[in-house]
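ok, trying the design again with the full structure, not the truncated one.
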């Protein structure tokens, strides 16, 4: 579904990504791990259109996207979450999910002005879908609460629910369990696995190796902007290069990617 071919991203004299090639097959959860500063978030930014490669190509469902804008990539079916939560803090949880569905809406401006029957039916459909997502992610209690007032774990799940509200084919998760306790992390993993079983494809950046082993079918390891290993969770767990570059670090749970 997603293919990166020889992607390089340079910032002046700094090479953040160097000849990166990877593949995310349809219906799989693929992990991307590596030490802090390895280039993981830079790579996600290339895929989501927030930044563009210096060289190399990125394709999604056979279509090149490495020069596309973020809104076009979102319309193609790619959604993402962020390392730092980006919710509309003063809006309610329900309103955040309604906004997340805006690219799915079919109502017209004229229909909104006239408050037509078709427009009202569309608004009802979107509202029902948003409430279903709140229930699915155990957020029904927060329906009318401002997003900024929610506990951290609830905010993380709300950001995931908002990404799902766009009805993506590919979901990019940038450290989705950051700040969560072990129980919250495991529960989020169950949500990710359920989404995969429904046909969603996922690329996840994460430092929590328990979570990575819970959800990932395969893993890529990035170090100093280069892929140094690729394989199953067990393959990666026992790879000497990975142990040296990433798993052997004592403090692998803080800092930016």
């Amino acid at each position: 579904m997603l293919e990166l071919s020889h992607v390089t991203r340079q910032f002046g004299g700094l090479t953040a990504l160097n000849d990166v090639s990877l593949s995310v097959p349809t219906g799989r959860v693929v992990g991307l791990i590596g030490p802090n500063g390895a280039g993981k978030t830079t790579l996600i930014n290339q895929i989501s259109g927030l930044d563009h490669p210096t060289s190399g190509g990125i394709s999604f469902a056979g279509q090149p996207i490495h020069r596309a804008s973020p809104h076009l990539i979102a319309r193609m079916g790619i959604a993402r979450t962020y390392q730092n939560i980006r919710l509309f803090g003063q809006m309610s949880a329900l309103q955040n999910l309604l906004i997340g569905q805006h690219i799915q809406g079919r109502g017209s401006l004229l229909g909104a002005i006239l408050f037509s029957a078709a427009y009202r039916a569309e608004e009802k459909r979107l509202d029902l879908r948003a409430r279903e997502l709140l229930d699915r992610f155990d957020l029904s209690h927060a329906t009318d609460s401002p997003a900024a007032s929610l506990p951290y774990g609830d905010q993380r799940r709300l950001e995931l629910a908002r990404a799902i509200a766009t009805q993506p084919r590919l979901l990019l998760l940038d450290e989705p369990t950051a700040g969560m306790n072990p129980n919250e992390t495991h529960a989020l993993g169950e949500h990710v696995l359920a989404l995969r079983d429904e046909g969603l494809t996922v690329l996840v950046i994460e430092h929590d190796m328990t979570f990575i082993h819970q959800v990932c079918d395969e893993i890529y390891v990035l170090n100093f902007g280069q892929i140094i290993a690729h394989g199953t969770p067990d393959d990666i767990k026992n790879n000497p290069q990975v142990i040296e570059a990433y798993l052997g670090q004592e403090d692998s749970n803080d800092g930016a990617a």
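Keeping the full-length input from now on. The domain at 1-77+168-257 is CATH 3.40.50.300 (Rossmann fold).
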